[in-house]
Each structure stands twice: as C-alpha cells, then as structure tokens.
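Example S7 (structure tokens).
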C-alpha cells in the first residue's frame, strides 16, 4: 500500500513484496500531512532494500504524526538485511504488537498467536494467551463498527489488536507454559484456559 498521508483501517495486508516497503509505505510531504493505520494486521510481507530507513512491514517517511493504532505488525521479512517489521520516522505505535519494541505506550512484542498463519488465517486464537486479545485502546469510531469479518468491533469491552475481533461463541480450551525451554531439570507451570459458551455436540 503506497499512500501520501490518509487512513488505513481494518485491513489485512499480507504476502506483498517491495523494494522500499513490503506492506505499507506512507510518504507524506509537508508538516500538515499525517499517516494513520488503525486495527490492521500486517504480516508475511517482504522487502528487499535493506537498511534502517525501509522495512518489510510498515514504513513512515516524512510523515507528521505518523501513528499505528491497535495494529499487529509481525512476521515480515527484509531479505536485504534491514528492518523486518517497521522503519522510517517519525513513527509512533499505540497499543500494537510488533518487534522490536518501539518503546511506545501499550506495545507488546510476544507472538500474536494466530489461528493458522500457515494457512492464511490471521484471526486470533482463543485460549492461546495471545497478547493481542482485549489489549487495544478503544476509539470513538468503533461504536457500531465491525471488523474485517463483519463482527462487532468491540466484543469483550476492550478492542483486540489487528483486523479481527475474537468471537467468544465457540468453546475453546488451551493452556500456556511459563517456561518453554531450559537446561537439565526444569519446573514448568501450565495454566489452562476455557473460553466461549457454545457447547453443542459436547457430552
């Protein structure tokens, strides 16, 4: 996506390849222009330019107050040895999931835990301990709005990061471990979780 200021909202930007930015490249000219990205999932894009100026996920160039709200910018690849997920300046992440940590408010760096990224399903997986579920920041435009699937944009009181809001209807069970690797003997605590209310077919 190439844009000269403006707004990108509720989009999945995936499997693109570029030389100066694989996912979104925002180049604003002049201090009055602003680039804003809201509740987007930017994943699996490729960039070939390398260097710190460009990136495979999202790039802001000369944008005044460039901001990414509630976004997942993860799993992008710069084959030229540059930044993977984000680059350029000035760029501010607000309640988003990305690496490396931008140092901005509400940013998380853990894996977003998609349902099946390998099969192109970038919805969040319930019961996974995803850091993107109910950790965004609510905004006025979300009242009455829907996500990329057409579901209510805010389902559980606080918006999810990314383009998809987790539906809690389906019953899902899962667990997370507090440690996943180590040497010799290792004490591991497993925490189980159950979400959803649809028990049809269960006995």
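Recovered sequence:
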């Amino acid at each position: 996506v190439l844009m000269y200021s403006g707004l990108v909202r509720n989009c999945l930007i995936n499997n693109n390849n570029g030389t100066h930015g694989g996912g979104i490249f925002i180049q604003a000219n002049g201090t009055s222009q602003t680039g804003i990205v809201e509740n987007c999932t930017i994943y699996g894009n490729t960039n070939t330019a390398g260097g710190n100026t460009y990136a495979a996920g999202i790039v802001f160039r000369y944008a005044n107050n460039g901001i990414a709200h509630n976004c997942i910018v993860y799993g992008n690849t710069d084959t030229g040895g540059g930044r993977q997920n984000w680059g350029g300046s000035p760029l501010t992440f607000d309640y988003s999931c990305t690496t490396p940590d931008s140092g901005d408010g509400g940013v998380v760096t853990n894996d977003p835990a998609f349902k099946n990224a390998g099969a192109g399903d970038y919805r969040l997986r319930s019961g996974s301990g995803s850091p993107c579920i109910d950790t965004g920041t609510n905004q006025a435009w979300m009242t009455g709005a829907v996500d990329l699937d057409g579901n209510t944009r805010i389902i559980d009181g606080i918006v999810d990061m990314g383009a998809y809001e987790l539906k809690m209807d389906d019953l899902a069970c899962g667990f997370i471990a507090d440690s996943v690797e180590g040497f010799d003997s290792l004490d591991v605590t497993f925490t189980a979780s159950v979400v959803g209310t649809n028990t049809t077919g269960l006995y």
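Notes on this example. The longest strand covers residues 58-69.
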